[in-house]
């Protein structure tokens, strides 16, 4: 199941439907993120968005939040492929941080892509 990451800056109607399914209708943050300096990164498979995460603009770094995979495609490596594709193909010039204090089970996933622990459950990736 090859998943390709992309930045969603102008979601079409189908993209919005897919993101609502992925985030189980909790997308009140989406329009603000797309309109501002934050980035919505989504994983696409067969022309449909099946995963996503938010990169909040923190000035000197991005803060990764809201990593989510559509329920029907979970347990197939979609999150792994989305993160891998994003780091390899999207041109990030600032570090990316993620707070895993509430989800320590994801630490090995992020470590796999070069995120290093920087204390208190926070991990950072540098371009």
TrEMBL record:
InterPro entries: Acyl_CoA_acyltransferase, PanZ_GNAT. SUPFAM superfamilies: Acyl-CoA N-acyltransferases (Nat). The keyword Acyltransferase applies. It comes from the Bacteria. The keyword Acyltransferase applies. The lineage of its organism: Bacteria, Pseudomonadati, Pseudomonadota, Gammaproteobacteria, Litorivivens. Gene3D superfamilies: 3.40.630.30. It comes from Litorivivens lipolytica. Keywords: Acyltransferase, Transferase. Residues 4-88 form the PanZ acetyltransferase (GNAT) domain. Pfam families: PanZ. One of its GO terms (molecular function) is acyltransferase activity. This is Putative GNAT family N-acyltransferase.
